[in-house]
Design the sequence.
C-alpha cells in the first residue's frame, strides 16, 4: 500500500485502486501464457510450480497474513517468518524451481525451493533494515512501516540482531548451492547483489 515504488507513484496512486488490481490480475495471467510457450514437455510442471507458489498456499496466503498482522504489536518472530516466507519467498522459490526444470535438473527443485524461501526472508529483513536506516530518496519508496506501527524483524529483534540474521541466512543459502547439480556462479552473483543492495 506504499505511495511510491522505485521512485515513482504506485499504480493505485498514479491511476486507481481498481486499475492496480486489474494490472496484478493481468500480469499473473500473462505469466501462465509465457509458460505455455515453453517446452511442452515441462509446461505441466511449470504451471503447477507457479500456481502453487502464487496461490492460496503461497503468495496469497502471505499477503493475507500480512494484512491480518497490520496494526498488531503482538506478532511473534515465527509469525513474521511465515509472512515473509509466503509473501516473498514463494515467488522467488517459484522462479528458482522453474529454472531448475528448464535447465534440465529437476533433481535440484527441492534445493532451489529451499534457497528461494530463505532468500525471501532475507530480502524482507533487509527491507526492514533499510526502512529504518535509509531515506525515501535512496529507497525509491515510502518508508511507511514505522509510521503504521507495523511489526518488523527490526522492531522484534533489534537492528543488530536483524543484520546478524541476514548474514546467517546468506551463509546458509550459499551452503545450499554446494549441493546443486548445475553451475551456481550466476546464482551466487544474484546473492551478492541482494546482500549488498541499498534499495
Sequence:
Amino acid at each position: 500500500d506504499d505511495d511510491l515504488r522505485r521512485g515513482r507513484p504506485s499504480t493505485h496512486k498514479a491511476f486507481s485502486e481498481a486499475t492496480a488490481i486489474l494490472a496484478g490480475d493481468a500480469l499473473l495471467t500473462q505469466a501462465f501464457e509465457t509458460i505455455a510457450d515453453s517446452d511442452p514437455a515441462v509446461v505441466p510442471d511449470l504451471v503447477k510450480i507457479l500456481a502453487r507458489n502464487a496461490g492460496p498456499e503461497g503468495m496469497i496466503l502471505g499477503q493475507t497474513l500480512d494484512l491480518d498482522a497490520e496494526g498488531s504489536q503482538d506478532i511473534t518472530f515465527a509469525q513474521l517468518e511465515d509472512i515473509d516466507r509466503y509473501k516473498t519467498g514463494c515467488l522467488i522459490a517459484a522462479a528458482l524451481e522453474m529454472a531448475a526444470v528448464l535447465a534440465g535438473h529437476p533433481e535440484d527443485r527441492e534445493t532451489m525451493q529451499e534457497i528461494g524461501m530463505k532468500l525471501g526472508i532475507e530480502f524482507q529483513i533487509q527491507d526492514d533494515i533499510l526502512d529504518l536506516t535509509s531515506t525515501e530518496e535512496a529507497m525509491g519508496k515510502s518508508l511507511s512501516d514505522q509510521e503504521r506501527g507495523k511489526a518488523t524483524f527490526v522492531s522484534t529483534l533489534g537492528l543488530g540482531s536483524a543484520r546478524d540474521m541476514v548474514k546467517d541466512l546468506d551463509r546458509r543459502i550459499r551452503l545450499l548451492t554446494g549441493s546443486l547439480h548445475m553451475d551456481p556462479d550466476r546464482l551466487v552473483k544474484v546473492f551478492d547483489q541482494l546482500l549488498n543492495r541499498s534499495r
